[in-house]
Design a protein that fits this description.
This protein is of the alpha+beta class and 66 residues long. Helix content is 20%, strand content 44%.
Length: 66
């Protein structure tokens, strides 16, 4: 029986919007996976403001895994 990792969904918290841009750019440059999608959401509370970066990484094709 063979097992292949297909995708991973990750979420990161960063303090500034610029950090989210840098994080996404770093992931785009990484050749060990394909960045399928990403989303940045600004969160604000009474005491804090931060950004949540959600990414989906593709490691293998479902039809033809490596």
């Amino acid at each position: 029986m063979s097992k292949y990792l297909l995708t991973i969904n990750e979420a990161y918290r960063v303090d500034m919007e610029e950090e989210s841009v840098v994080l996404i750019d770093e992931m785009k440059a990484d050749n060990s996976f394909e960045l399928v999608s990403y989303n940045v959401v600004k969160k604000t509370t009474k005491e804090d403001e931060y950004f949540v970066v959600k990414v989906k990484k593709l490691f293998n094709s479902e039809k033809a895994p490596v």
